[in-house]
Structures are given as C-alpha cells and as structure tokens.
Design a protein that fits this description.
It is a single chain. By secondary structure, this protein is α+β, with helices and mostly antiparallel strands. 23% of the residues lie in helices and 37% in strands. It contains 3 helices and 7 strands. Strands 1, 2, 3, 4, 5, 6 and 7 form a 7-stranded mixed beta sheet that branches. Strand 6 (113-125) and strand 7 form a beta hairpin. The N and C termini lie far apart (33 Å).
C-alpha cells in the first residue's frame, strides 16, 4: 500500500510550532480530553495501529468516533494511565507530515510505574491531523 500526503495551498504550511501544538493536543486527547477531537482531527481522520495491543489488532483502523470511544473506555478502566510526548516532533513542512516519540506510564498495584513508548507518524491537512500510524513498544526508548 502506498500512502501519499500533500499540503494544501489554502492554509499555512506545517511548521514545528504548529506541529508541537498538534502533538500537545494529541497527547491531551489520549489523556482523556476527547473534546479536542473535533478541533485537532480532520474530517475523515484515520488511526492505523502497526501492532496489536489491548485487542485492537494490527489491521484495525480507527476513525474519530472509534478513537474517542476507545480513549474514554481506557481512561475509565485505567485511571492511572498517562501519555506524554518524549521529544519535540520532527516536521516535514513540504510533505505536511511529522513524527513524534511518546511514552505511556501506568502505575501498577504496587505503586511502580510501567512505561512503554512508541512513535506516531502524522499526516496533517489544513492544520489538523488527518492520519496517524502508531507503533507501540514494550520498553521506553533510551534517552
């Protein structure tokens, strides 16, 4: 499958500042603020998982409604789950794409924190996230 994204000429190009704001919104969305979905996700948004986790399956793709339902269910079931960007996004203004490392923390019953990390690759259209390809790992990236 070949995926091509392009920026449009009717909006400002994707910049590192815009990318950082989108990643902040994306992180807040994953931390349970599903009201941000309408503002930061483009019409037709799709999220593609590169691996299986929590029963999603690698072939599963979420639209906005499925994503917000998934986040709401996870937030209710795993109240100590938090997400954070692990670095500023890398931005390709010409292609309208960016990438960001992130970490997921979950306090277990003993108070210890279990950390996973991943990489999200974003396509941005008209200033909003139009697609994300997400890969989750079972360890934190080395600093």
């Amino acid at each position: 499958m070949s995926v091509t994204t392009t920026t449009t000429t009717d909006c400002a190009p994707l910049t590192r500042e815009t990318g950082s704001r989108l990643v902040e919104g994306w992180t807040a969305l994953w931390n349970g603020d599903v009201t941000l979905a309408e503002r930061i996700l483009a019409p037709g948004f799709r999220l593609y998982f590169a691996d299986d986790f929590d029963g999603t399956g690698s072939a599963k793709a979420f639209g906005q409604a499925e994503l917000t339902s998934f986040i709401t269910a996870n937030s209710q079931a795993l109240t100590s789950l938090t997400f954070a960007a692990d670095a500023a996004p890398l931005v390709d203004s010409e292609r309208g794409e960016m990438a960001c490392r992130w970490i997921e923390s979950l306090a277990d019953g003993a108070g210890d924190v279990v950390v996973k990390s991943g990489i999200d690759m974003f396509a941005v259209t008209d200033g909003r996230i139009s697609a994300v390809w997400s890969l989750t790992g079972n360890h934190r990236f080395a600093a």
